[in-house]
Amino acid sequence: MNKKALYLGLFTVVAWGSSFAAIRVSLLGGYSPGHLVLTRFMVASLVFILYALWPGTKIRLPARQDVWKILLLGWTGISIYHFGLTYGEQTVSAGTAGLFIATVPIFTSIIAVIFLSEKISPLGWIGMAIGLAGVALITIGSAEGTVEVSVGAWFILAAVIATSIFFVFQKPLFKRYTPIELTAYFTWAGTLPFLYFTPGLLNEIQGATMEATLSTVYMGVIPATIAYVTWSTALSIADAGAVSSLLYIEPVVAILIAWVWLQELPSGLSTIGGLIAILSVIAVNWQSMRKRPALQ
Questions:
Q1: If we measure between CA atoms, which residue out of 45, 25, 67 comes closest to residue 190?
Q2: Each residue's pLDDT tens digit, 122-135
């Protein structure tokens, strides 16, 4: 992996890791989950519209046969994922949510095996089994004796599965569109269902704290748009597997930022489960990791 790809990838991981704490700040500052995702993705959609209209840039219209695929993937990877994560973080700490999201490669591998007939080594299967045990520990640890947090954990698990489906089935579209084009399409498509939450939005924005509103705008501009662009650029100039391995540190970033910003830490059981899950992801990808070239 070259240095430019490394720096772009690290920026992305830090931006995405910060979004878990930012969601909690917005929720605690007066936003409901529905109005939060709507505001965030209205900002993100506007940024991509401005990008598309900027002189010298070009985002093509998708082909007619791909429109429904893009809509379904946008609803899955943007609408379901972000609503599930945001609703779940009403009762699940930011660090614990980051641990949940770290398990995405496990579910992505399972879905790829089922639907794309991808092959996994025996070590990979063992790693996935251990990873699922880690997911169970995170879920149990997030409950901390209350029913409400368990409900939040199930919403985040639904988000994990949704984004795993999204990652697997978007692959064929990269043959026909650039990563930035697809990110714009998915963002616009994923914003449409959030318009359901439009009633009462202005009143909620007026009643929310300034920190909550700035946090929401930040998520729309940085993690939801710029970070996706830097991630796409990193993937275009370096080995995809090497770049993706940077995601292993995302839960660490999420926990550190949540600790500094919110004084929140995941429970001991959730942390153990997260470590098990991350180690299992490394086990699943161990063979391909060994073949990667060293950092240049």
A1: 45
A2: 766 777 677 677 76
